[in-house]
Structure formats: C-alpha cells, structure tokens
C-alpha cells in the first residue's frame, strides 16, 4: 500500500477487517430496537401507533389471557429476528469469534 492516502488505507485494509464486528453490532442493534417494549409503552399513547410488542400486551388481562391470539402475535414478532439471524449467522459468528483468535 505504498503511496496510499489514509482514506484508501482505511477503506481497503482496516474496514474489511472490521466487517464482522460492524455486522454484529448492526444485527444486535436491530434486535435490541425491535424487541424494545418499555420506551414505546412510555412514549406512545395512540393505539394506532403501537408496535407489535405493545400489541401483545393487550392479550393479557387481569383475569384471563387470550393464549391463541397471544401466541400468534409472538410468532409474528419472532419471524423478522429469526430470519435476520438465519441470513446473517455467518457474520454473527465471525464477529463473536474474531476477538478470541490469536
């Protein structure tokens, strides 16, 4: 890389080495945001703006729980995270193990 500018060194050497780490952070950030319950519960008051996680909260009453609707909504909420994990599993494993190899 003789004569390369600092930006070229970063984008051709350093950034490809950090790709698994960036993918892991992006995937875990998506999962953290997708599964968030408390912040939308505090901020959203309109029932039409509820997230899927808040919509699941409706199925549990004080004296009864609608299990058939609750478990159907659990599957709907789980599918995007599960699909994301299946497609990006290679990057997750590479990001987790990249720091442990000598």
Descriptive overview:
- The protein is mainly alpha-helical and 102 residues long.
- The chain is elongated and about 70 Å long.
- Helix 2 packs across helix 6.
- It has one domain.
- Helices cover 69% and strands 0% of the residues.
- The chain contains six helices and no strands.
Keywords:
single chain, 102 residues, mainly alpha
Summarize the SSE layout with pairings.
Elements: H1 6-17, H2 19-34, H3 38-43, H4 52-57, H5 67-87, H6 89-97
Helix pairs in contact: 2-6
Distance between the termini: 24 Å
Gyration radius, to the nearest Å? 20 Å
Helix content: 55-70%
Q: Report the structural category.
A: mainly alpha
* Total number of strands: 0
- Write down the secondary-structure element order: HHHHHH
How would you name the oligomeric state of the polypeptide chains in this document? single chain
pLDDT < 50 stretches: none
Average pLDDT: 81
Short description:
The chain has 102 residues and is an all-alpha fold. It is 69% helix and 0% strand. The two termini are 24 Å apart.
